[in-house]
Write a structure and sequence with these properties.
By secondary structure, the protein is α/β, with parallel strands linked by helices. It has six helices and 14 strands. It has helices spanning about 20-30, 35-55, 90-100, 150-160, 175-185, 210-215; strands spanning about 5, 15, 60-65, 70-75, 80-90, 105, 110-115, 120-125, 135-140, 145, 165-170, 190-195, 195-200, 205. It binds 1-O-pyrophosphono-5-O-phosphono-alpha-D-ribofuranose, uracil and magnesium ion (MG). Belongs to the UPRTase family.
Length: about 220
């Protein structure tokens, strides 16, 4: 018998789905010979798989429905609605993947790039749903490197009233995870892989390079 209502805490959890499809697609994504077109498609597919993981803790409840044959108890997502917030640019590549599974989600945008010298984030655009305080927020960014950008984005949505925040990323460095755990221990992280670390320029190694440039064919 399923519970009448489910709602699990996501506090501080790092989920790395152990799945052959995730491993296979991530290997293709990292490969330097992968084309822009293929890269975009893989980001979309990986995001779909990670969204399945990231939404496992959304609350659901019992509802009575009628099939063509009889009445039955079904389950329906309850409680807060979702706001998806990509961190521009690279997070935009993940947006359609989430929206194809949660088509009714509201979308907020956080424009941010990291200064190449200081590795500090520079915010250049923010547009969030007015009722973000009442929503489960899913932040999207393929790369969690130093964690400076994600930490700033979490602060931005919290300043707007958000109290439930998750991050979906594709690759993280241990340094980035530590940073989020330290500054925002309530934020759950779902990531396809945690890599070895950062190089002297703050890039994740082995990583995949610059996610935004690979998504959009810049540089
Ligand atoms: O964890 P951090 O050290 O902050 O690094 C990660 C950030 O760097 C990349 O964005 P970038 O600055 O390249 O902007 P872009 O998406 O416009 O390319 C990436 O998409 C993250 O936002
Ligand atoms: O490895 C990295 C680090 C930051 N941003 C990226 O796109 N890649
Ligand atoms: Mg970039």
């Amino acid at each position: 018998m399923p519970p009448a209502s489910t709602s699990a805490s996501t506090t501080g959890v790092v989920v790395e789905p152990d799945h052959p499809l995730v491993r296979h697609k991530l290997g293709l994504l990292r490969d330097v010979t992968t084309t822009t077109q293929m890269f975009r498609q893989l980001v979309n597919e990986l995001t779909l798989l990670l969204t399945y993981e990231a939404t496992k803790t959304l609350a659901d409840e019992e509802v009575e429905i009628e099939t063509p044959l009889e009445r039955m108890a079904a389950r329906r997502i309850s409680g807060k609605k979702v706001a998806v917030c990509p961190i521009l640019r690279a997070g935009m590549g993940m947006l359609d993947g989430v929206l194809s599974l949660i088509p009714g989600a509201r979308v907020g945008f956080i424009g941010m790039y990291r200064d190449e010298e200081t590795l500090q984030p520079i915010e250049y655009f923010v547009k969030l749903p007015n009722d973000i305080a009442d929503r489960d927020v899913i932040l999207l960014d393929p790369m969690l490197a130093t964690g400076n950008s994600t930490a700033a984005a979490v602060a931005t949505v919290k300043a707007a009233g958000a109290t439930s925040v998750r991050l979906i990323a594709l690759i993280a460095a241990p340094e980035g995870i530590e940073r989020i755990h330290r500054d925002h221990p309530d934020v759950a992280i779902v990531v396809a892989a945690v890599d070895r670390g950062l190089n002297e320029k703050g890039f994740i190694v082995p990583g995949l390079g610059d996610a935004g440039d690979r998504l959009y064919g810049t540089k």
